[in-house]
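Hey,

Quick one before I head out. I ran the complex with magnesium ion overnight. Inputs first:
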Amino acid sequence: MDWPARSPDLNPIEHIWDIMSRSIHQRHVAPQTVQELADALDQVWEKIPQETIRHLIRSMPRYLLYDVNPPEGFNLRRDVYIRMASLVKTLRRHGDWVLVLPPWGRLYHWQSPDIHQTRIPWGEFFSLTSLQGNVPVIEYEEFIAESGGPFIEQVLVLQNYAEGWTDGKWEEKVNERPCVERLMYSKDKQGYYRGWFWGYEETRCVNVTCLSAQGHASMLAPLLQNNITSTSVMLDRAETVLHDHYAGKDYWNTRRSMVFAKHLRLLGDEFRAKYLNSTDEQDQIVYNEDWTLIKNKLGSARGGPYLGVHLRRKDFIWDHREDVPSLKGAVKKIMSLMKKTKLDRVFVATDADDEELAELKRMLPEMTRFEPTWEDLELLKDGGVAIIDQWICAHARFFIGTSVSTFSFRIHEEREILGFEPKTTYNRFCGDSEKECEQPTHWKIVY
Ligand SMILES: Nc1nc2c(ncn2[C@@H]2O[C@H](COP(=O)(O)OP(=O)(O)O)[C@@H](O)[C@H]2O)c(=O)[nH]1
Ligand SMILES: [Mg+2]
C-alpha cells in the first residue's frame, strides 16, 4: 500500500491514526485490527497529548446496538427505533456512531407455525436506503462483518430506579446500579457473557452492567461519550428511555424514513388495485420513493373507495378491556360508518382467531381481507403480512382503528404522511358499554 504523504499539521502518530481510520471507513481494516495496533503503540502512547487521544477516539467508528423487552410487539419496537435514532443523532455530534439494527424475531404475536421467524434483517420489512437517509444504520450481520466478529464489548441493561421516584419528584437521571431483575445474560466457560442476541448464538459480550435510567434517550449521550470507551455498546431494555421530543420534527423525520420495503408496498398496491378499485392516481395520493420529497398537505389525499378497519383482538379481548368492542359492536359501527361515508367496500385488518373470523364474515359478508397463502406467508412472514395490512388501511378513504393499539397508531402516522384529512384518520372503536369514548389524539406532522 502507498502511504499518503503526511500533512504538516499532523504529528507522526496522528498521521498513522489518520491512515488507519480512513482504512476503517473504506472497510479495509476492521476496528479490531486498529485496536491491536493501538495496543502495540502503547509504549509511545504516554507521550501523546491527552487532547490528541481524545480526538483519535472520537474519530473511530462506534456502534450502538439495542434490544427491547421480549414481550413487546412489532409496533412498539418501531417506536423504540425512533428513540434510538434520536440518541445516535445526538451522539454523532461528537463521534462517528452507527446504529446497528436489531434483527427481528421471536415476537410473541408471530405464531404462524412451521416458518422460520428469527434473525430477520430489517431489509425484509423496511427500505434500508430510506432509513439511511435519516441516520447511519447497518444490519447486525454487517456489524459482525465489519467489526471483526459476533462480539459486543459492553451491554448496558437499562432499568428503572429500584426506589421509584424519590419524594414523588420526577427528575432525569442515570446511574450504574445493581441489577434489579434477574440478568438475562450468563457467563460461559471462557468468561464471556452469552444471551439471546436475536438468535445469534455465537455472539459474545465482554461486560454486562445495569444502568438505572429515568428520562429521555439522549440523556445517555454524555455517559456513552465520556465514560465508556468500548467501540460497541448495546442498550438492552431500550424502551426504558423516553422520546427526546415526541411528535417533534426529529421524531417525524425518523418516522418518515421508516418506509416499508418495496416488495410489501407493491403487494399492498396490487391488492388495492385488484380488490378495492384503488390506485394512487385515482385516490389523489402523491407518493415518492424518496421520503424526503413527500410533503403532502393534510387533506390533499382522498384515499381509495373503501373503509379501512383495524380490529385488534387476541390479548386485547382476553383481559376484557372496556375500551374494546364485542364483534357485534364492531360490526354495528362498521355498518353505520359505511352508510355515513357512502362506501360500500370495507377492508378489515385483524388478528382475530378463526372462530371470530368466521363470525365476522357471517355478520359482514361484504368485507375484504388480505389472506396470504402458506407460500406467501413463508416469504413475507407474519411481519410482512402485518405491514401489508397496515399499508392497505393507510390508503383507505376513511379509517377506524382499535383503542391504544400501537398497530393502529402506526397506521395513523402513515396516513398523516400521505396527507389525509385528520377526521378520516383519528377514529377508534368504542367498547360496548364504554362511557367516555375519547378518540385518538391527532399528532400533527412536522417538517
Ligand atoms: N396481519 C395482522 N397482524 C396483526 C393485526 N393486528 C395485530 N396483529 C399482530 O399482532 C401484533 C400486535 O402487536 P403490536 O405490534 O405490539 O401492536 P399492539 O399490541 O396492538 O399495540 C402485530 O405486530 C401483528 O403481528 C392485523 O390487523 N393484521
Ligand atoms: Mg403489543
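The mean pLDDT is 92.

Talk tomorrow,
K.
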